[in-house]
Amino acid sequence: MTRDIKTRAVEKGLNVNFIKKAEENLKSAVKNIENGSYNASAVNAVHSAISAVDAYCVFSIGKRCASENHKDTEYLIMETNFPKETSGVIVKLFGAVIRIKNMAEYEERLVRQKEAEKAVREAQDLLNAVNEALRK
Question: Which pTM was predicted?
Answer without folding.
Answer: 0.95
